[in-house]
Each structure stands twice: as structure tokens, then as C-alpha cells.
């Protein structure tokens, strides 16, 4: 009886939870009842399991039998398959689509983050993505306080200006002045700030989303810490009116979004970040190739654990870059070497990491 | 049936009742009893019994004419959980939940009280308490009726205008495969509660004996001989047709055989291939196009046999 239960359990795992627990319980009882009636062979056992699972699998008894046979074959294979599962977190070259790959199948690669977010919400995302999306991102912008104001000059109001650009202090003072003088208010009294683009070139972030990013640093996964750092960075860039692009890579790389104004899309960008999940092997060279092909050869931030499968190729491509800033999720001599080679900075990922300091 | 009595019904442990009956009768006896009406379905009988023994509703799935309904009836009769042994419902797409549960006639109830025999006319779900319920062609039930059935299976209670009536029954359903048109899919929750047992075309030898046996039964006291060559042809044709995607009904095949023999008898000669071909064309439940295909198949089978 225990063997039947074991078998059913493994079938359940191999079916990926498709079969209902009720039908499994009945299948176990049914096998026993049928054994009492006599004539129970292995073939019959499979038949009975299939008959009981057919309803839950939404298949005819014949089709259900095929599914159950496949599941039994998979259950027999699974003990030897375990080592491969262990390796999934490290180097490996297991191909798995990143969120960027999935989304870009449905929308232009240079579509705005808003369009991409709409696509994400309508897609049938992998379970990993939905689990990731459940936990919120802590993008507390403690970084903003020390970001120097980027105001270049204050000028007169024009109707198309966004309300966030209004310089409240200047406007209030001029309103007060008019009130004291007893004169009517006009558009001229509203002052706008005009920003200077301190960060005038778009910033490219390449985020490692391989399976190894699911490992924990402290109380959160590496991916989560990295997401928080990126979200904080997006907030800072919004304040600085910079452009941000995010590329995701495991074995392949693709743009989650191409350079877009952070102050326009910060909300969407952070929302998309929530859905980014980790899966598959690591190939840092793929990210560098993608960025190079896109003409982004300087001031790139790479967030990775450095467990790439082809280190020589990475170093070879890295020579084409200037200032690759590297954020390592674990201490890595290789990544330090990569940063030094291109004149960039090397940091290790920590919960309070400020990406902006890389440019300081 | 008085409503007040129905409301005080005691639960019946049906799976235990079935197990006791099986133990008392013995499996061989049940199989033998079924074999009086149907042959070649011993495995299906055991599968059905084991399902009923653990309290799981059983659905017999198969194309028309393989003896699903008969099998369900014979099993219920053999088990004879109560008297009458079963309640049978021919399901159809316009069946409502009320058709299954029964309803209170408010006009009668107002004049004579709820306990008048006509105030509440119970439906099959209620009358099947303590015995077997056979739902023929369950896949024709619309979602509304399925919901009422689901409640009865799951909670063992039926709700009629707020009155809660206990009902326990051994459920045997028959269903056509889902690829048939004009039928509803069972809802996910309902399908999950059924054990689906497939009724297949029997083996060649058994099919042969079934055809002869049934044809003889239909011919009755007609003193006509069934040529074994025709039966071989028919068996061969049946398997060819199934391979070509036209599963045949054993019922219409045996009627066709009997029809051919009776036709020849009426003309004072023994039946030939031509008789059987005509009888098949007349007896098979298909459109004319499909019939043409099948007649061609039969001619091929006749030549090779």
C-alpha cells in the first residue's frame, strides 16, 4: 500500500500538481478495493490510477492512461535527475527565457515601459514571475536627499509644463508680493524650474537573472536586494532627469526596456521590476554583446555573481568597453578584474548600496 | 412520500452496503449475472464495483451501442441495494435542477399542508436514497443540473426550497466520449469526483460470440441459421471501421446480422453477403456519406474474409 502511495505521490509531482488530491486519495483506495476483487496486474494498476485521475486531468480514460504512463516514466527518471536540479543555481548553460525575452515576443523591443507593463499584466507569466511579483519592492529613496539639486534656472510658466516642475518657493514669494501690492495674479507669477541634465547620457543596467540569483544574502535573495538597489536608483535618476535602460541576462540577454526617461516612467519601471524572476544558467558575455551591439560601450552597470560559463570570452569583449561598473552579488575576483580592466568601479551588493555612488 | 419523513431520513453508508453485498454474493457470481446480459466486459464490471465499494461515483465512457446503460442496470440489479434496485434518469440538455431534486407545489402545499403526497413530488436524486442511481448520458446535463448533482454527491443533501433532504446513493453514470457533438462538458468539480471507466469494443473472439448470441436472441424462435462466414466478415468490418475512425455500435451490428438472416429466411434461402450489406446500410446510425464509406469498408472486408 505504501508503494502505491509513493507511486501516486511521484505521479502527482511529475504532473506538476495537475491531478487533484481527492482523485489521488480515491485512486489509492480504489487500487486496494480492486486488489480484493482479484486480477490486479501492473497494467490494471495503471488503468485504475488513470480512471480515477481522468476527471481531474480533463481527459478521456485512454488519454489519461497515456498521461499517467508518461508521469510514471518521469517518476522513474526523477532520482537521477536530481543532481541536474542542484546545478541549476550555479554556472550551467540551461536556457530559460527571461522576463525580457517573454515580453519582447509580444511588443517592440524599444516600446515604452508603460506598454511593456501592459503586456506583462496580460501575459500568462511563469509561476516564478508571479511569486516574485507578490513581494513589494522597497525603493525608499533615502538616496534622493543627498543628490544635489539639478536646477539650472527658473523661468516663467507655460501651460504645458508638468506641475512637478513648479518652483513652489519662488511662486509663493511672488504671490505674496502681489497680494501685498494689491495687484491681480497672473501666469507670470508662477515660476518653473528648468533642470540641467547632469546625467546626459543614458545609463545601462545589466541585471543577472540566472538561477543563482535566488540564493540568499542575509534575509533576502540576491535578486531582491538587486531589485531594491535598482528601484532606488531609478528614483534618483528620476530626480536627476536621466535616462535608464535595463537589460536582463542569463544565458541570453535582452532589453527589458531600452533607454527611457526615468522621471516619466519611474512608476512603470519599478512595477516591471517586481515581475523580474531568476532562472537558468549565466553567460555574462551575452549581455556585453547585446550592449555593444546597441552602442552602449561606456558607463554600464553590471549586477551579477560572476559565475559565468565562459570567462575568457567576457574579458575579450570587455576590452571594447570603457568604465564597466560592476556590482557583485558575492565576492568575485573575476568581476573585480573586469572592472579594473575597463576603468570602472567594483562594489559588492549590500542592502544599502547606492548605485549613484558608482559615478561619483 | 411525506416531506416531514424525508426531512428525518437517516444517512445510509452506501459503500459499506456495496462491500457487504459483494462479499455476500461473491465477485464470480456478480460477473456471472452480468454475463447473462453482456459479455466481454468482465474487467469493466470489476472496475465499476471497486469504484462503488469505495464510495466513488463511476462513469462508464464509450461510444453508443457497447452496452453501457445495460451494464449499469445489470450491476445495479445484481447488487440490489434496496427494492427497487435502482432509479434511472435519462439525462437531456433541458433538464433543470428541479427535475433532479423535485419541487414543492406551492398551491397544493397551501391548501393541504406540506405533508400531502402531492405537495412535494420528489425527484430522482431524492428517491434514489439507499439504492443505486443511474444517470444515462450524463454529459447531456447542462451546467445548472450539474450543480444540483454536485451538491448531492458532495454533501449528500439535496436542497428543495430551503428544505434539506438527506440522500445517499451509489451513482453509476454513462457518458459518450467528449468528442461527440451537442453535449456539455462535465464541470471540473464534477469530473473530479468521478471514476471514468472506458467501455471498449470486445476482443475478436468475444465480439464474434456476442454477435451470434445477440442475433439469435433477436431472431427468437425463427428457425434460421446464422452463417459463420457472415459473422467473420462483420467482425473484420467492425475492426476496420474502428481503425478508420468510425467506431461501430455492437447493438446495431447484431441487429444488422439478425436483419440479414431474417430477410433471407423470408425468401426461403440462407443469408449471403448482399443481404448483410443491405442490412448494414439500413441499420447503421450514420449519415448517407458515412454510410457509403462504411459500405466500401465492408466490401473490402468481405473480399479479404
Your description of this structure?
The complex is a heterodimer of chains A (360) and B (305). Chain A is of the alpha/beta class and 360 residues long. Chain A is built from 13 helices and ten strands. Chain A folds into three domains: 2-84; 99-143 and 199-359, 3-Layer(aba) Sandwich (Rossmann fold); 151-195, no CATH class. Helix content of chain A is 48%, strand content 15%. The longest helix of chain A is centred in the N-terminal third of the chain and has 27 residues, at 61-87. Chain A is elongated, with a radius of gyration of 28 Å. With 305 residues, chain B is of the alpha/beta class. Chain B has two domains: 3-198, Rossmann fold (3-Layer(aba) Sandwich); 204-304. Chain B has helices at residues 3-7, 14-25, 27-35, 42-53, 68-79, 97-101, 106-112, 124-127, 143-155, 188-192, 204-219, 228-243, 250-266, 273-283, 288-304; strands at 58-61, 86-90, 102-104, 120-122, 132-136, 157-160, 163-166, 170-175, 195-198. A five-stranded parallel beta sheet of chain B has the order 2-5-8-1-9. In chain B, strands 3-4 form a two-stranded antiparallel ribbon. In chain B, strand 6 (157-160) and strand 7 (163-166) form a beta hairpin. In chain B, helix 12 (228-243) packs across helix 15 (288-304), helix 13 crosses helix 14 (273-283) and helix 14 (273-283) runs antiparallel to helix 15. The interface between A and B is medium-sized, with 25 and 25 residues.
Amino acid at each position: 500500500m505504501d508503494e502505491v502511495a509513493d507511486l501516486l505521490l511521484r505521479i502527482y509531482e511529475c504532473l506538476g500538481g495537475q491531478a487533484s488530491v481527492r482523485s489521488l486519495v480515491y485512486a489509492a483506495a480504489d487500487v486496494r478495493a480492486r486488489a480484493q476483487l482479484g486480477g490486479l496486474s501492473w497494467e490494471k494498476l495503471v488503468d485504475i490510477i488513470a480512471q480515477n485521475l481522468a476527471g481531474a486531468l480533463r481527459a478521456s480514460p485512454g488519454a489519461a492512461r497515456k498521461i499517467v504512463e508518461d508521469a510514471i516514466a518521469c517518476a522513474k527518471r526523477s532520482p537521477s535527475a536530481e543532481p541536474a536540479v542542484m546545478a541549476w543555481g550555479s554556472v550551467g548553460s540551461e536556457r530559460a527565457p527571461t522576463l525580457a525575452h517573454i515580453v519582447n515576443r509580444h511588443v517592440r523591443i524599444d516600446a515604452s515601459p508603460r506598454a511593456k507593463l501592459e503586456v506583462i499584466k496580460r501575459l500568462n507569466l511563469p509561476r516564478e514571475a508571479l511569486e516574485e511579483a507578490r513581494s513589494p519592492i522597497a525603493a525608499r529613496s533615502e538616496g534622493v536627499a543627498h543628490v544635489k539639486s539639478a536646477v539650472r534656472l527658473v523661468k516663467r510658466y507655460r501651460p504645458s509644463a508638468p506641475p512637478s516642475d513648479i518652483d513652489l518657493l519662488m511662486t509663493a514669494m511672488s504671490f505674496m508680493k502681489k497680494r501685498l501690492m494689491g495687484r491681480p495674479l497672473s501666469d507670470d507669477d508662477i515660476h518653473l524650474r528648468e533642470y540641467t541634465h547632469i546625467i546626459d547620457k543614458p545609463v545601462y543596467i545589466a541585471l543577472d537573472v540566472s538561477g543563482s540569483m535566488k540564493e540568499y544574502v542575509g534575509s533576502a535573495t540576491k535578486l531582491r536586494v538587486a531589485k531594491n538597489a535598482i528601484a532606488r536608483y531609478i528614483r534618483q535618476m528620476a530626480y536627476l532627469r536621466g535616462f535608464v535602460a535595463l537589460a536582463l541576462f542569463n544565458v541570453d540577454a535582452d532589453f527589458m526596456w531600452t533607454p527611457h526617461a526615468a522621471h516619466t516612467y519611474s512608476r512603470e519601471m519599478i512595477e516591471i521590476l517586481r515581475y523580474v524572476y531568476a532562472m537558468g544558467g549565466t553567460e555574462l558575455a551575452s549581455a556585453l554583446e547585446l550592449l555593444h551591439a546597441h552602442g552602449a560601450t561606456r558607463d554600464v552597470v553590471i549586477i551579477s555573481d560572476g559565475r559565468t560559463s565562459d570567462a575568457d570570452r567576457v574579458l575579450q569583449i570587455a576590452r571594447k568597453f570603457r568604465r564597466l561598473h560592476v556590482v557583485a552579488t558575492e565576492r568575485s575576483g573575476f568581476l573585480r578584474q573586469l572592472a579594473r580592466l575597463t576603468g570602472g568601479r567594483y562594489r559588492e551588493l549590500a542592502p544599502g548600496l547606492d548605485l549613484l555612488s558608482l559615478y561619483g | 412520500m411525506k416531506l416531514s419523513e424525508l426531512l428525518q431520513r437517516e444517512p445510509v453508508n452506501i459503500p459499506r452496503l456495496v462491500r457487504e453485498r459483494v462479499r455476500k454474493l461473491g465477485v464470480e457470481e456478480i460477473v456471472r449475472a452480468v454475463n447473462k446480459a453482456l459479455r466481454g466486459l468482465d474487467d469493466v464490471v470489476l472496475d465499476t464495483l471497486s469504484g462503488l465499494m469505495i464510495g466513488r461515483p463511476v462513469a462508464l465512457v464509450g461510444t453508443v451501442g457497447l452496452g453501457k446503460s445495460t451494464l449499469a442496470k445489470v450491476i445495479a440489479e445484481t447488487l440490489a441495494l434496496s427494492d427497487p434496485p435502482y432509479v434511472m434518469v435519462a439525462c437531456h440538455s433541458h433538464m433543470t435542477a428541479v427535475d433532479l431534486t423535485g419541487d414543492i407545489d406551492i398551491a397544493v402545499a397551501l391548501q393541504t399542508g406540506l405533508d400531502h403526497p402531492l405537495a412535494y413530488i420528489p425527484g430522482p436524486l431524492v428517491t434514489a436514497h439507499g439504492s443505486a442511481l443511474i444517470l444515462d448520458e450524463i454529459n447531456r446535463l447542462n451546467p445548472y443540473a450539474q450543480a444540483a448533482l454536485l451538491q448531492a454527491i458532495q454533501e449528500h443533501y439535496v436542497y428543495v426550497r430551503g428544505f434539506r433532504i438527506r440522500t445517499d446513493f451509489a451513482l453509476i453514470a454513462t457518458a459518450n466520449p467528449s468528442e461527440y457533438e451537442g453535449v456539455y462538458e462535465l464541470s471540473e468539480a464534477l469530473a473530479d469526483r468521478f471514476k471514468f471507466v472506458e467501455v471498449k469494443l470486445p476482443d475478436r473472439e468475444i465480439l464474434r460470440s456476442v454477435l451470434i448470441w445477440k442475433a439469435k436472441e433477436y431472431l427468437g424462435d425463427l428457425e434460421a441459421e446464422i452463417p459463420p462466414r457472415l459473422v467473420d466478415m462483420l467482425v473484420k468490418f467492425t475492426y476496420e471501421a474502428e481503425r478508420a475512425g468510425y467506431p461501430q455500435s455492437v447493438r446495431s451490428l447484431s441487429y444488422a446480422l439478425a436483419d440479414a438472416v431474417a430477410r433471407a429466411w423470408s425468401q426461403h434461402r440462407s443469408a449471403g453477403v448482399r443481404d448483410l450489406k443491405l442490412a448494414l446500410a439500413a441499420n447503421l446510425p450514420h449519415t448517407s456519406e458515412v454510410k457509403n464509406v462504411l459500405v466500401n469498408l465492408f466490401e473490402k472486408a468481405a473480399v479479404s474474409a
